[in-house]
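Table S5 (text form). Sequence records supplied for joint modeling of the two-component complex.
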Amino acid sequence: MYSTSDIRNGLKVEIDGQPYMVTYFQFVKPGKGCAFTRTKLKNMLSGNMLDRTYKTGESLEPADITDATFQYLYEDGEYFHFMNTETFDQLPMEPKAVGDAKNFLVEQMEVNVMFFRGNPVSIDLPNFVELQINYTEPGVKGNTAQGATKPATLTTGHTVNVPLFVENEEWLKIDTRTGEYVERARR
Amino acid sequence: MHPAGLRARAAVLHALRSWFAAHGYLEVPTDTLVPSPAMEEHLYALAVADGFLRTSPEFALKRVLAAGLPRIYEIGPCMRDREAGPWHRREFTMCEWYRAGAELGDLMDEVEALVAAAATALGDSPPRWRRTTVRAAFQQATGVDPARAAAEDLSGHDEPWDDAFLRRWVTDVEPTLTGAVFVSDWPASQAALSRVHSDGAWPTAQRFEGYLNGVELCNAFLELTDPAEQRRRFLVANVARAAAGEAPHPVDEALIEAVGRMPRSAGIALGVDRLVAVLHGEENIDAVRC
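The corresponding structure-token record, covering 477 residues in total, follows.
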């Protein structure tokens, strides 16, 4: 168990069966009362924020959170398969746990997998990945209108908006946090 | 250490002392090493030699007030153990003053004038204060009437009512106290050394706190002048302290005797480090201390 004096940014605690990370904390002591620590916590599964105030001396349950580096192998229609880069153990992950990361996974990519109580629950991707276009409407020659875009479907199935000059089968740099096109990648 | 913060601190200290001198207040330095450090259950004093470092100059100043000086103040160091954070520090600077015959509204006026003097000394415009009650602020922020709510309904925790009230207060009410605001009429159980007003459904302490930009700046009492009630509160606090596994604080007999001779009066303690830090736009009090 943690005590209120252990509270710091990044501390991982379990509340109502969910893992949370402390993102803000402040010692407060009202004029004529006991001391508290005011916290803001981020749900590590949903991303939702929670405000909690702990009385000095109260205990907090540590969240059983671990992580490890895995290489993405393949998808078999039911599971996404990864391999631990240290132990070479294979790990099948349900699409639900992979979440939106599936839009950016390419074979042999290294990712960080987070486990809650021993179960894989989420994937931490690099901020930027390079993905290839599967299909986009051919560009219209001479069209240089500022800011005009068209949809492009990537090999992962994810669709991004790209400038009109981008061609089929080109490689793109994608920001995994926003899912958006950044620039063309040189290959 | 920030030179700009220290210059602001010196300017504010000068402004405070000038204001007190101009309004007939006498500066009275009292001992920092005292026989009894505090009454309140949630204050932790540092024991030194055969006494304690004071957590506030309250007891000593009340003896001066009882001795016949009607307007007194002290600015000096106080020490509270187990307090550390951006707005808390084990050693801090307190400005405390007492005025015979004053009511709480008079002290609100004086805080407004003092803060205006301090702001002016820093080249800022004085804040505009509003005045509300604990009950109104609580209801506005939470929709819950603290006068009618049980502990469970206040915080969702199984805990003493005062803890539940304060947990909800610091979580949901304090963040709504923006700007400059006085909050009066606290629950009677949080009266400390103030008089209790027991008319109506909800007995309240005749006490207010001032908040400046969300930081608790000062705490004022219409002072208790009943020595028997003062002794009873000392004993109640010591019972609570013992129940929490803490050593009791010596009952200050000289204070209890002085309380019986004190004129009707109001007194207030204001955190000087906090005042300077907030006016100077700092995020913590260390920025304005050496």
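Note: The radius of gyration of chain B is 19 Å.
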